[in-house]
Design goal:
Blueprint: H1 3-20, E1 27-30, H2 32-41, H3 45-53, E2 59-62, H4 64-72, H5 78-84, E3 88-89, H6 102-110, E4 118-121, H7 125-132, E5 139-143, E6 146-149, H8 154-168, H9 172-181, H10 217-245
Parallel strand pairs: 1-2, 1-4, 2-3, 4-5
Antiparallel strand pairs: 5-6
Helix pairs in contact: 2-5, 4-5
Length: 246
Amino acid sequence: MKVKRQKQVKKCLNFYKNNFKFRAPFQVLVDSTFCHEALQSRVNLSEQIPLYLSDPKVKLCTTPCVITETEGLGHKVYGAMRIVKQFKVWKCGHEKDTVISAEKCILSLIGNNNPDNLIVATTDSQLIHKCRLIPGVPVMLLRYKAIILEKPSKVSLKAAQNKMKSATEVPAAEKALLEKMMPVEEETPIKKKRKAKNQNPLSCKKQKTELNPPTSQTSTGETKAKKKRLKKKAKRNALLSKSEKN
């Protein structure tokens, strides 16, 4: 078996294991149409199905209604009848006097939720369509002389999503209990901000103006030079006045 087919069947089986509690050994319910197609394609079901599902202990079974219907079809399906009679007979609850068609018998075993986790092996298009409408029903086909486990139907995918969603949600009773246990938070009063008052005019002091601002170094240097000039001038005037007297 190719690697791609192995991955595909493993992915499908894991889906049914995780969402619908399928477990090995798997149970495959085979009808006469599947046996007839296997005979035409020269596929040994007792050998190939265990290899395909990687389950050597897989249980291949059929129902009394399937066998009775195959016997009624005559010599045309004689080979399929011999194959189907090799499998374990699943008690469907239909007595010989109340035998129904193979399709109705298989659908009655599956019911609304496939309680026995049966894998339906068929090539009947009408039965395949009805199995797709029931959540958790894997369908096994025979195409191009190869066994194929069909991908999960839209109904099965939606049922799995709903299960996951309900598993994550908290039940209403538990939710109400948690709300009661949680402490009630008291509302803290909101403090109003005080408006800024006008400043008291009496407390406001006027800035003192400096009467004699400090003189810079340049101004002090100029005054010293001026004083020296005045002293020299006074000395010169004094000398001139003495010379005039003499």
